[in-house]
Amino acid sequence: MAQTQLKDSVDPWKYVIIFSKFLLVFVECGITKSFGVLIPDMVTRYESDYKTVGFVCGLPTTLMYFSAPVGGLLMKVVNPRIMAISGGILSAVSIICSPLAGSIYILGIMLALTGFGMSLTYFPIIVSLNIYCAKSFIFANTLTIFGSTCGAFLVPIIVERSLEAYGYTGAFLILGGICLHTLVCGAVVRPPKDMKKGEGSTSTSTAQHELMIQRADSTSRETWSDETSNFLPRMNDDTPRTQKKGVPSCNSNDTVNSPNGTRTLCESLTSRMKLFFLFKEPLYTLVMPAIVFFGYVNGAWMLFLVPHAEGAGIQLSRAVFLSSIAGISGIFGRILYLVLLHFKVDSTLIFCVSSVICATSFFIDSVSSSYTFLAVMASIQGFTMFHLDCIPHAMMKLSVRSEENLPQAIAVNPFLFGLGIIVGDFISGHLYDITLSFSFLFMTFGVVLVIITINLVIYKLIDRRRLRDG
């Protein structure tokens, strides 16, 4: 695995980076969960349906992850710290102005800007986290994702009380104030200062980090552009390395002497395909469906948990506490996951078992509509779902075999997760509009989790066979 060749930074600033990632996902997940409280008001206010409102409410989280590749490109020409701070301002101002929207479409644009702003903060932070915690990335990232659990626990209660006390506009103002904390997250972004030339491993990533450190004291735009471009994906840089490893060139003698152009075309196409990131990392390509499908379940479950309880006849003031129950249970789930990681339990096995348990809770969701039963189901779902959301980054780190390809995976991974979220929110809202049954909707979540389990099992079998064959 790529991470076994790396070395963590000893710069104490890494704890600030870890906390900034914690705070960012706190805000992101808190906003997503709080929309579950506001959805009924949005449907009434804009005379819309759950399909459209679900799509719109999923835009902040979706765009935050969906726009990560754009953030990677911007980091080549913009100071990452300035970019991250600007993103925090854009996200907060957009969500504060959201109540002024005269239609559901204008609201969608405002929330999309919120998500894009958070993506400008997200990408520099996740790249910095991988630099500071190159070896212990899975463990460190799991620590930061505690923020999403805390956000799911606290923010919906704050928004529900704000909605009752200050109305729809006041609730969005409170959300904007919470979102403004992403500005602080962006302000702390900087490269580590402890790595010096000759230290650490000989991997490409470490060499790139050393190049960053040599210029860490300079804060000019040109310096930051050079630093970030050293570890962002560049296909042109891969060409010489790949050809040195024996990838056939379209200018080879065999190709020139071929009787027709078929061989030339095939060899040229094969060469180009082998240069493409996903063909160089087949195991990562294999787990991509699991990342997309988990985004589908995670986003839709967060969005429709509270409306599901309201549909069962439970008052909003009580239904909102299901999010808190899920969040508290998720904290224990994350702690268990960290303990299992400490004892070297395979992450893929953990994810498979949790997926089966979570799927079962969705399948039996329709057994009862009592508050006690729904609270138990929410606790089981929170316990499993809030450490299943380690799937994207954990499986990325486990499946990417070359550290040279990891920056490209960091850019692609959030895009896949965001794609799953927006598709899940839209399709789930559409299914509810058709069936008017949250129980049926939750059963579809169970089916998707079963598909995720099958995908991970296939990955693990192939990985074991590869290791056995040497």
TrEMBL record:
It comes from the Eukaryota. SUPFAM superfamilies: MFS general substrate transporter (SSF103473). Residues 215-256 are annotated as: Disordered. One of its GO terms (cellular component) is plasma membrane. Keywords: Membrane, Transmembrane, Transmembrane helix. The keyword Acyltransferase does not apply. One of its GO terms (molecular function) is monocarboxylic acid transmembrane transporter activity. The chain crosses the membrane at residues 12-33, 53-75, 82-101, 107-131, 138-159, 165-189, 283-307, 319-340, 347-364, 370-388, 409-432, 438-458. Pfam families: MFS_1. This is Uncharacterized protein. It comes from Strongylocentrotus purpuratus. The lineage of its organism: Eukaryota, Metazoa, Echinodermata, Eleutherozoa, Echinozoa.
